Amino acid sequence: MKSEKQADGGLRGKSTSRDGGYGWVVCCGTFIVNFVVFGIHNSFGVVYVNLLDDLQLGEMQTASIGAMAMGLNFFFGPISSALCDRFGCRVVSFAGALLSVSGLFLTSFIQEVHKMYVTYGLVWGVGSSFSFVSSIVVLGEYFNKRLALANGIATSGSGVGSLVAGPVINYLLGSVGWKNSMRILSAFAGLLWFAAMIFKPKKNLQSTGQRRERTKLFDTSIWKNKAYVLWVTTVAVFQFGYLIPFIHLVKYAEDLGVPKSKGAWLIGFLSITSTLGRVVFGKISDLKFVNRLYMYQFSIFSIGLTTLLCPLAKNYAGLVSYTLIFGFFDGCFVGQVAVITADVVGHDKLSQAVGNMFGTLAIPMSLGPPLAGWLHEAFGTYDKAFYIAGSVAIFSSLLIFGVNYMIRKQFTEREIEEQLGLKSDTSLSVSEAETASDSAYKDTESKPMLEEEEYVAVNKFCKLHCALRTSKALLVILQIAKLGCSSSNAAKPAADRNAQTRDDENDNNQAAMTAPKINFPAENSPQRAKSSGSLNIRAKVVPLKPGRSLMDWIRLGKSGQDLAGTGGLVQAVTEEELSKHNKEQDAWISIRGRVYNMTPYLEYHPGGIPEIMRGVGRDATDLFDETHKWVNAESMLEKCFIGPLKRSNVVKKAKPSRTGSGNSLNVSSGSLRSHNSLFVPSAQVDGFAVPVPPQKSQDPRYDWYQNEKIITISVFTRKKDVQVEDVILELKGGKEFDAIFLLGEKSFRIHLAFSNLISHQQVRLSGESGKIDILLTKEVAGVQWTELGQGLPGNNSFKLHKERDSRLWDCRVISVDSVTHNCKLFCCEFPNGVIMRIPVGRHIHLTRDVEGMQISRPYTVVLPSLQVDQSEREFDGRRFYLMIKLYPEGTLTPTLNPVVAGDTLQIAEYSGDFKDTRLNEAKEIFLIAAGTGFTPMIRLIRRTVMENSSVEKSVKLLFANRQEKDILWKQQLDELSDIASPRFQVFYTVTQTTPEWEGYEGRVSMEMLLEILPPPPSADTERELFIGVCGPDAFTHHIVSMLKDLSYTGRMIHAFLA
């Protein structure tokens, strides 16, 4: 990408040094901390046996020592994290090392158990917490993209430490006794000082003041989340029995006659498989079709079941098998508990949620092992302890069902589903979706709006831009001067601002990045109607009241309430009666001959009540089709159905046909016998055969002829710019032929029952005359047809295409591939006999059953790749691709998550108003996309850059996303930019950046547009510039508004909106 690789003023600059270098030394330091801390903690079971023998303490008292230390290690987690924020990781790590060494060393001089609670339980427990937490926090300062790898390497130290420490401690205990062993362990803990020295503060973070905000030590706001409360409860229940095997397994093995030397290895075996489990379940968790919550549930259930069966193991081999299984599934718990917590509360609250959870877990974690010790003392066996540990684990796994229910309920209650009429090709995240229905482009990061005088200054500056046509650099300076901003860094690459503090950065972002709230188009603006140019903005989605989402409407429909107000009776409604119900309190409407009581639905309509009120009291079919013909009104309004519309019985006398005969040919018996059968003068209306008015001279017509192998139907469209994509063919059973020819707003239909079988069909355009040939291969070659066939309903009709019923096909899913963490690419194939080539920039409509209601969403058809693949021609018109972002809280997309190859998706005909001839006119093409608003840009880029490489065009893409990981096909775009530069350039901007990010930061701003866009061309050359915009509706409205403020006209702009 030429523009992104320039050394001076390019989008990409030098990034801070992370994900390598000294960071790997820090990773080794964290490994050492894990090795020491959890090697000692997890091996307390070996020490426990010796303490029982040497001190003659009670089992409950002795087990409480180790349980208290491990519990405080977690309990002080949030406090340790806050101290790291306040004083730095190195300081906290040094303090932890001091406490750890002191606690272990002092324990070696203790004889009384209550003092051991202080030295080992409290001092060592708190010290280990300081050391462990600071090592994890500092690792995040040195790694970003490779953080998962670094964290995996570092935390594997706990498994290795447990494997090594158990046998070593057992050897020391047998050789020098437990007191000297404690002193040796305190010296061993001195390695924590060495690790603390490694954890040097990162200079660039300290110098720029990029230290995290000081966190509250006790923040209880997270407990308002009911799903989180239940989630913590499930983990706490599990933790009650979790430490019992770690502390008592060696003693249990000794009771079975296993030597201490061999028993010490049991914790090591457990640690090996635990380390393996973290890797395996981590990889499985990344698979898109895996529900990690259920994976976690299965693992906890498996731990409970094996622990429940552990008393059946009466020899060393059985105990080894138990530890291997327990450890493997324990790896899922250790590796996934924080990840699932993020799924429950969101990443922005993860630190707070994990800290509070660890603090809570310390209580049951500290109670379980002492109880197990007491049970062993009381009954002389560990059977009951393991039964309890296994039972609570199984009970905890069952509670996961409640967690899943609470999460789903939480999402639906937040009204974040894709609303009816909202474009599905968007990149709304959970937080952004809540504001997507707003009429203006709101700043979801709570940044203040520009003051009124600043907005005036922006408008003055934009006018100055058009008048002076000066350089873009000068324009940016003028804008800054007008706004009185101290810096324009908000739109510059992150790498150019590394020297600034985060506070300065936020202040500048607020001034430079935040746009005024703009309602576009204005309520009475003619832009709401389809203009003569490319710009076509449909009515906006309005905010709905709480409890008025689509899912709420579905639930209301299933509640049993009489929404129609007729007591369940269906009654015919005259036009006169319909006209009386035209108020908000009594609103009836007719759509396609069916009358509905819209009164209960008014507040659920995403387009607002006034939009529906435009059609109440009358037949609103045309009004409905203008906005969303693809919506299944019969399903959506089924519970509001009153009855059929009884129209006035007025029938106009049909004019004679052009053959001079006034008799109509009945569709059931009429046939096309002549090779010149151009007209079948009949059609079906409400189930009756009625005469069809004679064709006008400009209407399409068709004829047919044949040879030995081919039947050719020639359609004379009288339209010069007809394309092969304008033809939709459907051949059922080799005989029923249904063809639609899209000719502008109208369509021509041929619907026939052939007299003989057809095996293959093909479309051929005949030059620029507007003639289309349909080549039909005879099933039996050499047979001369005496007639083409019989006309079926709708044959030879030419009318507005929106007046035709939409056709639905069950399309087979060929493949499902992951594009990003929450986006999939579906390859689908039409049923046999259907050929539909979707034009560039158009969308099809996908229909799914959601709780008994048919819900449709528009999706732009894409390609399998930006690269040209000749194999695509083999399936031309038969296969298509959809790139769909899956919203867990959405209405339709959750039903797509389990879809796999071999399933079917219900697809309707394509729609849209983009003309690809616009690409031929333009010399400069500028595309602005947000999230999956990138989908219509895919074929535009392929068409202009790859397929027409000989034509000199400049194509630029500005691609906005929340995070770098959300960018669709980034690698392909970068490769294409390298290959096709300077004809194709791509620019990225994200709102959530990392220090390594080398593109724009923040939302698309006027400064970004000024840097990349050419000046507005003059009126006579305005068609040489094409600007395409697609994203969430609010994003699209905002971008179009900014473009118009910069004097780019509607003839230059096309907004891709469903």
From TrEMBL:
Boundaries of every FAD-binding FR-type domain copy: 806-917
Transmembrane segments: 21-40, 60-79, 91-111, 117-140, 147-169, 181-199, 228-250, 262-281, 293-314, 320-341, 353-373, 385-407
Chain intervals for the UniProt region annotation (Disordered): 489-509, 514-533
Organism: Stylophora pistillata
Major localization class: membrane
Protein name in UniProt: Cytochrome b5 reductase 4
Coiled-coil intervals, chain numbering: none
Positions of the CS domain: 697-789
Database matches in Pfam families: CS, Cyt-b5, FAD_binding_6, MFS_1, NAD_binding_1
